[in-house]
Amino acid sequence: MTMVLDGELDRxxxxxxxxxxxxxxxxxxxxxxxxxxxxxxxxxxGVKPLVRRAEVLRELGGDLKLAGMSPYLHAIFRxxxxxxxxxxxxxxxxxxxxxxxxxxLYSPGPFR
Length: 112
Hints:
Blueprint: E1 2-9, H1 11-26, E2 31-42, H2 47-59, E3 63-67, H3 71-79, E4 87-89, H4 92-101
Parallel strand pairs: 1-2, 2-3, 3-4
Helix pairs in contact: 1-2
């Protein structure tokens, strides 16, 4: 499943996203891609809860992968200590294909 986010995401938005991911896991969706291509801001306080959700999905045999992040968003995640907590992809379709193939598709970029 791919979750496409949009806009400037404040603390309340991020809390709802994290809760939604929890509901997905409860419903058996354990392979999730979050597409940040249209996100201009992500509240840093939501990074650690997102990491915890990813850990739960991994315990269920899945994963949470992030795609389309700008350098600004990468900096937020890096400063919140999540630089190595996720697989990052340039485009959401690359992240989706990595689930299908069972391999990590490396996308060179300034944050690898």
